[in-house]
């Protein structure tokens, strides 16, 4: 992870692109500036009445001092009203306010005794606040220059009309220099404040993005994740933890770990005593799942706790099994491709020998060879079908059109009566599926249903319906003996069959092809006591009812 930049590392283009200037904060600063000016005007109006006797010898005209203070206060009120209305734009308002301060305070300094009254020091505050608000170097120095010119003109006028001392020009010069120094200092501080503000904005954006990314990752994780503090209070959770623990966490209430799982709370307490623990395997009581529990310590300023990870062992085993089966499928597909040519040669040679042989014993042996080569050829074809799952060309299939034609074709190939199949397609359901994959799945499921059914009228049911979640369901059921509970667990495993003439790949291929097309196949006990295989098509299909 890269380090965050400091304010001095950010260039001007970076700062300008970081965050646009906040008009709201600018108007707020102007409002506080007006509040200071309003308090200052009120104090200046009270000076002649409260401190008139003290300043009698120095004040040229207390009446003019009072009325200038009143006029200045009225201008402040007008400025405050303009700030509330936000017209005109803030830079013009700030320029008017500082200009008014320069004119009013310089006039008050003249009526208050000249440069020796030290009223000119009040301009230092206005220049400092104005420089920090406007955040511009040139305009701040312009304000300082105007204030210096005004104070020098005021003292010059006092020297010419009131007999002020010319030696006090040094004091006026020092005061003017102070104006420039304060203005430049305010400008420098405002630049650093702007850089710090925009750097804080950048860091806030980074933290917000990181927090959102972490939240999405935690929510999307299939494993359960809990963030607990040192008191065992759950601070954060994800749906995986709720599913595995069978407990719904509320975002408003703080739930104790002992409330949702006392066993986890005991493991957490033991782990706090001995950090070597924390990789235990336990069976969760509610979901009856095996889970590996890991504790990851979290130590940050103001927080100490741990991240509790509940790893679903069954899901991990299924994923490992899928990886093994995928690798095995690619290997067997390559082997099947190499076996196919020699197998064809053996079958062809056997047929030639059978035609030329007149010995019944030899013909029986040759027929055994032909039967086994035919069975091996079916296995090779089934294995080749597994390799087709990566080549999906989905298209829109209308089940009301496809299923009747498929049933008619199947009845002709198997030489059975059409009355054996009962087809129920109440509406026009359309799904997205690979046509070849769809026919291969139907062929495997319908032939199995036909083989194990009683072959009576309506023994095999093919029914299409819509589920509660809007997904299309296709059920293929028979009235046979069904599947024993022991065999259900291994029903979709490869080379698992109870038929001596079968390859044990039909249902495995059907499941693989369904998953390749975003669908799911599952086994259900049939209503009439037989077996039922249900295909749940993916959410991308479009079901259109009634045309």
Q: Any overview of this molecule?
A:
This protein is α+β, with helices and mostly antiparallel strands and 547 residues long. It has four domains: 7-203, no CATH class; 222-313, 2-Layer Sandwich (Beta-Lactamase), CATH 3.30.450.20; 316-388, Helix Hairpins; 391-536, 2-Layer Sandwich (Heat Shock Protein 90). Helices cover 57% and strands 14% of the residues. The chain has 16 helices and 13 strands. It has helices at residues 12-18, 23-50, 62-85, 90-111, 122-134, 137-161, 169-220, 239-245, 257-260, 262-273, 313-356, 360-386, 399-414, 435-452, 485-488, 506-516, and strands at 224-229, 233-237, 255-256, 279-283, 290-300, 303-312, 394-398, 421-424, 430-434, 460-466, 472-477, 520-525, 531-536. The strands form three sheets. A six-stranded antiparallel sheet has the order 3-2-1-6-5-4. It has a five-stranded mixed sheet with strand order 8-10-11-13-12. Helix 12 runs parallel beside helix 16 and helix 14 (435-452) packs antiparallel against helix 16 (506-516). The longest helix has 52 residues, at 169-220. Residues 1-21 and 540-547 have low confidence and may be disordered.
């Amino acid at each position: 992870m890269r380090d965050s930049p400091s304010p001095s590392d950010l260039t001007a283009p970076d700062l300008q692109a970081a965050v646009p200037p906040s008009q709201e904060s600018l108007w707020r600063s102007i409002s506080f500036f007006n509040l200071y000016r309003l308090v200052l005007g009120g104090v200046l109006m009270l000076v002649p009445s409260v401190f008139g006797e003290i300043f009698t010898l120095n004040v040229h005209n207390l009446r003019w001092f009072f009325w200038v203070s009143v006029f200045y206060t009225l201008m402040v009120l007008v400025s405050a009203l303009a700030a509330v209305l936000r017209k005109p734009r803030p830079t013009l308002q700030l320029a008017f306010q500082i200009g008014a301060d320069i004119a009013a305070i310089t006039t008050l300094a003249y009526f208050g005794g000249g440069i020796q009254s030290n009223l000119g020091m009040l301009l230092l505050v206005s220049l400092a606040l104005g420089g920090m608000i406007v955040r511009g170097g040139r305009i701040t120095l312009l304000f300082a220059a105007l204030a210096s010119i005004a104070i020098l003109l005021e003292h010059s006028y006092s020297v010419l009309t009131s007999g002020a001392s010319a030696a006090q020009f040094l004091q006026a010069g020092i005061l003017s220099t102070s104006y420039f120094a304060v203005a430049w200092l305010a400008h420098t501080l405002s630049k650093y404040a702007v850089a710090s503000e925009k750097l804080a904005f950048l860091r806030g954006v980074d933290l917000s993005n990181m927090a959102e990314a972490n939240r999405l990752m935690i929510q999307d994780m299939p494993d359960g994740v809990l963030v607990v503090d040192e008191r065992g209070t759950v601070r954060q959770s994800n749906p995986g933890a709720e599913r595995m623990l069978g407990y719904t966490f509320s975002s408003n209430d703080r739930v104790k770990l002992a409330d949702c799982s006392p066993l986890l709370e005991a493991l957490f307490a033991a782990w706090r005593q001995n950090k070597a623990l924390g990789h235990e395997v336990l069976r969760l009581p509610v979901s009856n799942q095996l889970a590996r529990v890991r504790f990851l310590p979290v130590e940050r300023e103001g927080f100490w706790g741990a991240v509790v990870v509940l790893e679903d062992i069954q899901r991990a085993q299924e994923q490992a099994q899928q990886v093994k089966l995928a690798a095995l499928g690619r290997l067997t597909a390559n082997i099947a491709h190499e076996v196919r040519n020699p197998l064809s040669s053996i079958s062809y040679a056997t047929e030639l020998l059978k035609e030329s042989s007149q010995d019944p014993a030899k013909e029986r042996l040759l027929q055994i060879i032909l039967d086994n080569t035919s069975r091996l050829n079916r296995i090779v074809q089934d294995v080749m079908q597994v390799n087709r799952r990566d080549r999906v060309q989905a298209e829109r299939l209308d089940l009301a059109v496809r299923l009747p034609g498929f049933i008619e074709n199947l009845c002709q190939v198997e030489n059975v009566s059409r009355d054996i199949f009962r087809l129920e397609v109440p509406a026009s359901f359309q799904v997205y599926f690979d046509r070849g994959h769809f026919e291969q799945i139907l062929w495997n499921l319908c032939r199995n249903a036909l083989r194990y059914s009683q072959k009576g009228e309506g023994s095999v049911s093919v029914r299409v319906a819509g589920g509660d979640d809007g997904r299309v369901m296709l059920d293929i059921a028979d009235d046979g003996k069904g599947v024993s509970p022991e065999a259900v667990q291994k029903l979709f495993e490869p080379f698992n069959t109870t038929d001596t003439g079968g390859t044990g790949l039909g249902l495995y291929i059907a499941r693989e092809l369904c998953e390749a097309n975003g669908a799911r196949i599952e086994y259900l006990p049939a209503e009439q006591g037989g077996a039922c295989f249900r295909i749940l098509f993916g959410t991308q299909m479009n079901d259109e009812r009634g045309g």
